[in-house]
Amino acid sequence: MKRHLIAATFAAALGVAAAAHAALDVGAPAPDFTAQAALGGQPFTFKLHEALAKGPVVLYFYPAAFTQGCSLEARSFADAIDQYKALGATVVGVSADDMETLKRFSMADCAGKFAVAADADRKVMQRYDAAHARNPERAQRISYVITPDGKILYEYSDMNPDHHVANTLKALRDWKAGHG
Question: Which residues, if any, are the signal sequence (predicted)?
Fold first, then answer.
């Protein structure tokens, strides 16, 4: 199982243009964090450790709300939210956007189905090696699957938003098959 995830991570990394970006390793501890977030336009405090107490977490970083790729990616996560819930997973997106922007984004492109968190000081991005190499004010498009014990199960980096949902769902299904 672990070899499969490492191989998938390696294969994904080969497909990334400018693969100079480093990500947290599979098996590494996921840094805990607390951030202001919005769900369906309502602000709240997201705490990773509380979400992990309920099951795995899909933590994805994206450059900026309401940009073409980020809107597409958010809609894809929203469309798949029932599949994530069936696997017991929570989805949360993170960007450097301000809370007013995230309140609107959480209603519009996220369709009120999952939370998006603000990382204005970029500390969460830094802890997850998710700052964009050419524009550190924004996040790299990177998705992590974190198991309830706080370990990185899967990582996928690609500025193209097309495969983040399918890849994280596959990683969750594979994990669930071994832990179900």
Answer: 1-22
State the alpha helices, DSSP H only, in 15-64.
48-52
What domains sit in the chain, N to C, each tagged with a CATH number? 28-178 (3.40.30.10)
Euclidean distance between CA atoms 19 and 36, whole angstroms: 31
- Give the pLDDT confidence of 49-80 residue by residue, as tens digits: 999 999 999 999 999 999 999 999 999 999 99
Q: Phi/psi of residue 82, each to 5°? A: -65, -35
Cβ count within 10 A of residue 163: 15
pLDDT at residue 17 is higher than 60:
no
